[in-house]
Design the sequence.
């Protein structure tokens, strides 16, 4: 059974700092990996999707990497802003195409 | 498109009552998913549909839970009878195919007293 772990559970950084969020998964036979953002009281928004054949994806200040063989992914946020404060969740899709979610990293960017 | 639409946003009910949660997926999305989110267990997949047909309901916790998708634009998740441990946020999500980005609704916050 696939297990997804995100460390740290919470992170607080000053505005402007570059930061990295980590995600690890136990079964490397994945179809793709997605990073989501969840604001308090809201649903999840998909930020980036990396197919298993890809190494990274970029969108604006966000860059996600995937190392399938080691079961790891990182989400890099450049020049963080207070508006980036949210919970970030990693999810992997297996052969049945169902997503398994990590428990998330709660990010606070201090002004 | 208005995105995935869920109703109600909040539901407070008493133990033993029937609860029905509703979802309208994004038009053209063939896959619909119901998730439950709690602090203790995180996000759990309950059931998903492909072209209105239930494909995997192994995540449905008990027979008290049932889900239907009578047409491509509407799905319901029903809990009968409800119990306090069912209190959670229930999300509906849809995607064009299972390997593409997943679009979530805003969720229904369910409180069973």
Sequence:
């Amino acid at each position: 059974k696939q297990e997804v772990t995100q460390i740290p559970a919470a992170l607080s950084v000053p505005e402007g700092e570059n930061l990295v969020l980590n995600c690890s998964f136990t079964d490397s036979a994945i179809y793709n990996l997605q990073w989501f953002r969840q604001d308090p009281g809201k649903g999840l928004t998909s930020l980036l999707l990396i197919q298993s054949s890809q190494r990274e994806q970029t969108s604006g200040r966000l860059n996600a990497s995937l190392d399938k063989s080691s079961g790891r992914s990182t989400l890099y946020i450049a020049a963080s802003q207070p508006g980036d404060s949210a919970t970030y969740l990693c999810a992997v899709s297996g052969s049945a195409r169902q997503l398994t979610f990590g428990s998330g990293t709660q990010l606070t960017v201090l002004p | 498109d208005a995105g995935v639409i869920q109703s109600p946003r909040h539901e407070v009910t008493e133990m033993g009552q029937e609860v029905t949660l509703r979802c309208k997926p994004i038009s053209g999305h063939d896959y619909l998913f119901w998730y439950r989110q709690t602090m203790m267990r995180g996000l759990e997949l309950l059931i998903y549909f492909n072209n209105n047909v239930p494909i995997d309901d192994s995540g449905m916790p008990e027979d008290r839970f049932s889900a239907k998708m009578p047409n491509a634009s509407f799905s319901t998740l029903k809990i009968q009878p409800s119990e306090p441990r069912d209190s959670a946020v229930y999300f509906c999500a849809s995607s064009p195919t299972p390997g593409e980005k997943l679009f979530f609704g805003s969720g229904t916050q369910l409180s069973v007293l």
About this structure: DSSP finds no helices and eleven strands in chain B.
